Amino acid sequence: MAIPGMRGSDHIGFTVPDLDEAEAFLVGILGAQPIYTLPRRAVDDGDWMTEHLGVHPRAAIEEIRFYRLGNGSNLEVFKYSTPEEQRPQPKNTDIGGHHIALYVDDMDAAEAYLRANGVEVMGAPVASGAASAGQRWLYFRSPWGMQFELVSFPDGKAYEADAPVRLWHPAHPAE
User: Which of 137, 131, 134, 135 is CA-nearest to residue 149?
Assistant: First the structure.
């Protein structure tokens, strides 16, 4: 069973401390295309923010920027102001920990590009095993500490040999 009419992921939303810094990284390093911006949402005296977004009732959305990222999900990037304490980025081991994985055709060229542009790259590419054999991956961080990942499997992954359904692939979106 599935949500009626569900077709796939529309966007990934995340909050950043500085929208201009985030845009410089998303556009200048990752190649995202800016699409549109929504202005500040006024703070009200009610509990709209808590009811609809699960945040402090006096939190304010300062601005939201939308980006298209290649052939995959769109990005919705928020800047909030809130009376609550800001917390550091969650680690992958934390509840709510996350990363955004980007498919690349050439892992070595993509790694060299990130390093040449001063991006914090975490280690060296790792070859996956088991059902993911054929894939290489590498983590890197944005200027605000959010984790991203490069993945590449130009010749496919081991599980695909006898899988009745394959994971969606950004290089072959119609398959």
Answer: 137
Decide if 24 contacts 2 (C-beta within 8 A): no
87's CB contacts (< 8 A; 6+ apart) are: none
Looking at the domain that runs over 96-175, which CATH code has it been given?
A: 3.10.180.10
Burial 119-142 (b: 16+ CB within 10 A, else e): bebeeebeeeeeeeebbbbbbbbb
Section 27-49 average pLDDT: 90
**Where does the pLDDT of residue 51 fall: very low under 50, low under 70, confident under 90, or very high at 90 and above?**
very high
One fold for 1-83 and 96-175: yes
With tokens 């845009």, the residue in question is: 23
Q: What is the CATH number of domain 1-83?
A: 3.10.180.10
Domains of the chain, residue spans: 1-83, 96-175
Neighbour count for residue 152 (Cβ, 10 Å)? 22
- For residue 21, the model assigns a pLDDT of 98
